[in-house]
């Protein structure tokens, strides 16, 4: 069968499964909508947490960014993995013991202030909408290639599906849907990796295969280094980023992980604190399967791409190339007139993506209007690395379709978690806690569902107009989380002296300076974006790493300001003391 037929079958089956689970597990109360009733088992929560965590950035974006950045891309692997360990060990059990529904709920009660709660809601919305943009872009990329629809149409389809089970089931429906989505995405990620590893090196374990030698006796990494340096690229195993920037990006990703509201809320869905620890351990194991495989897929994909495409006449190019060309996610322009594809350093086009014009070129290629003046003739969108790799390697059509279903599962699972954070922030933390404390459970549930509808519409807009590649967009969300939530949560747990004035001022300062830096140097909304370069970065720190600076600013200002005001009330200090006591940790405290 054709790839498209296989895709319709596999994606259709998985979507029917997700919708069926949502109907079976629909929420009937706010507690079920917010935290799945608090009765999810540690194993199920571990699977759901892994799916929530491994978004389109992990499934599609991380291998892509490692494939095209080489050694420099390892910061994403280190930051996201280390961040989850930090979250599981340092924060999750304490937050679960606190016994609240959301992160803004924790901050509002811990800092005895609705102003603090509101600032936390704003930060949660900033983080969630930035993060969900990457997920919706991932959905659009998958649909545009494998279901033969426009990227925008793909985003609309994804919006409809995720809205259905987020609207109907809330956290209860999302949790059990994410269990199924993890099974789909990990199977889809590993099957082609194992096949390609066997084909390239004879080793069925991808984590070992990409460090092994092929049939010619040459180690795969040495071969890739040779291919890249021969064409003028930096060796794959050499880095170009400064040590400072690597450190700050890694730290921003780690600390941002520990402040991500859609991951933290997962630990509120289990019955006991010890269950939160168990589910964190399960999730780490499930996450490690994908994260240790991603570097292998990156190496396989970059090697296959360079060997297949470089110096190949366009008229002899495999069919996968022209099919991806139709999506606008890969493009070739014949700058030297020889009819062959030259893949060299430098941008092939001006701008973020090719601008196609009507008609065909001399060799039958799609014509683009914004070619740059570099020698490079090939534009490849990083986000197609995982999706195109099985096609480039010549794997069976059912595997190619399976990868498409996995990409959708990864994107939709995280998008659902983020949309729930957005809806609960509005319905619970703003409406219920501040404007209408006497609202009935039924009305609060209705508001939460209406907020989910609004969130999906905004998320769709960001998916159609994303500020960059999936992984880089998500990295910005981590920076915003690190600069706003992380200090407030850490000091809320471990410092009885931290008061509301310090926490509020710190969160605002960290969020504002990080947002300004991203708006100026990443989005180009402030200053002269056309002349701004990496040389203009403050201290040589990229926008993806500036969240660490924002976090340091948050800590510093919070600690200084807190000393000018009175310590928290005795009742709040007792709460802080209680959530750190190991004994009696079986249940969440009531207060």
TrEMBL record:
Name recorded for this polypeptide: Cation/acetate symporter
Any idea which GO molecular function terms this record carries? transmembrane transporter activity
Q: Which domain of life is it from?
A: Bacteria
Gene Ontology CC annotations of this record: plasma membrane
Membrane topology annotation: Multi-pass membrane protein
Q: Does the keyword Membrane apply?
A: yes
Report if keyword Acetylation is assigned: no
Quote the Gene3D superfamilies the UniProt record gives.
Sodium/glucose cotransporter
Predominant location category = membrane
NCBIfam families given for it?
Na_symport_lg
Q: InterPro entries, alphabetically?
A: Na/Glc_symporter_sf, Na/solute_symporter, Na/solute_symporter_CS, Na/solute_symporter_VC_2705, Sodium:Solute_Symporter
UniProtKB keywords = Cell membrane, Membrane, Transmembrane, Transmembrane helix, Transport
A Gene Ontology biological process in which this protein takes part is: carboxylic acid transport
Q: Which residues cross the membrane?
A: 6-25, 75-95, 115-133, 153-170, 182-200, 246-268, 280-301, 398-424, 445-464, 470-490, 502-519, 545-566
Compartment(s) of residence: Membrane
Q: Give the record's family classification.
A: Belongs to the sodium:solute symporter (SSF) (TC 2.A.21) family.
């Amino acid at each position: 069968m054709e790839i498209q037929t296989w895709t319709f079958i596999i994606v259709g089956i998985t979507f029917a499964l997700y919708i069926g689970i949502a109907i079976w597990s629909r929420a009937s109360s706010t507690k079920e909508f917010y935290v799945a009733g608090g009765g999810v088992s540690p194993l199920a929560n571990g699977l759901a947490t892994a799916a929530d965590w491994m978004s389109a950035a992990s499934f599609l974006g991380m291998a892509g960014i490692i494939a095209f950045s080489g050694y420099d891309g390892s910061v994403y692997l280190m930051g996201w993995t280390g961040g989850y360990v930090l979250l599981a060990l340092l924060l999750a059990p304490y937050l679960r013991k606190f016994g609240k529904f959301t992160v803004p709920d924790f901050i509002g009660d811990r800092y005895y202030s609705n102003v603090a709660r509101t600032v936390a809601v704003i930060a949660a919305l900033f983080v969630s909408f930035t993060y969900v943009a990457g997920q919706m872009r991932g959905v659009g990329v998958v649909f545009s290639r494998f279901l033969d629809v426009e990227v925008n149409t793909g985003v609309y389809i994804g919006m409809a599906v995720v809205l259905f089970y987020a609207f109907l089931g809330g956290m209860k429906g999302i949790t059990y849907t994410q269990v199924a989505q993890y099974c789909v995405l990990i199977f889809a990620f590993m099957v082609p990796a194992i096949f390609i590893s066997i084909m390239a090196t004879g080793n069925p374990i991808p984590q070992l295969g990409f460090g092994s030698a092929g049939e010619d006796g040459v180690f795969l990494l040495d071969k890739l280094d040779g291919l890249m340096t021969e064409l003028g690229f930096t060796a794959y195993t050499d880095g170009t980023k400064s040590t400072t920037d690597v450190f700050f990006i890694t730290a921003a990703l780690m600390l941002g992980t520990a402040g991500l509201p859609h991951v933290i809320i997962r630990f509120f869905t289990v019955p006991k604190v010890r269950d939160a620890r168990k589910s964190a351990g399960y999730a780490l194991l499930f996450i490690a399967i994908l994260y240790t495989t991603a570097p292998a897929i990156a190496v396989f994909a970059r090697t296959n791409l360079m060997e297949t495409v470089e110096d190949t006449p366009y008229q002899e190019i495999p069919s996968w190339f022209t099919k991806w060309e139709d999506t606008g996610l890969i493009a070739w322009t014949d700058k030297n007139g020889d009819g062959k594809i030259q893949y060299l350093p430098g941008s092939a086009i001006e701008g973020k993506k090719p601008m196609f014009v009507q008609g065909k070129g001399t060799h039958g290629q799609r014509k683009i209007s914004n070619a740059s003046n570099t020698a490079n003739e090939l534009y490849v969108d990083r986000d197609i690395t995982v999706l195109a790799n099985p096609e480039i390697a010549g794997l069976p059509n059912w595997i190619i379709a399976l990868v498409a279903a996995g990409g959708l599962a990864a994107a939709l699972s995280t998008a659902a978690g983020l949309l729930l954070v957005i809806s609960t922030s509005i319905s619970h933390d703003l409406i219920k806690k501040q404007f209408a404390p006497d609202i009935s459970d039924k009305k609060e549930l209705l508001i939460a569902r209406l907020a989910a509808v609004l969130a999906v519409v905004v998320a769709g807009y960001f998916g159609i107009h994303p500020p960059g590649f999936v992984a880089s967009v998500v990295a910005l969300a981590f920076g915003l989380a690190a600069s706003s939530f992380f200090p407030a949560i850490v000091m809320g747990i471990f410092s009885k002296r931290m008061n509301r004035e310090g926490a509020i001022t710190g969160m605002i300062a960290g969020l504002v300076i990080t947002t300004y830096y991203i708006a100026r140097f990443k989005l180009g909304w402030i200053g002269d974006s056309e002349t701004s370069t990496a040389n203009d970065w403050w201290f040589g720190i990229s926008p993806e790493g500036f969240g660490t600076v924002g976090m340091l600013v948050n800590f510093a200002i919070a600690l200084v300001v807190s000393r000018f005001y009175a310590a928290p009330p005795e009742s709040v200090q007792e709460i802080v003391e209680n959530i750190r006591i190991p004994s009696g940790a079986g249940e969440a405290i009531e207060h």
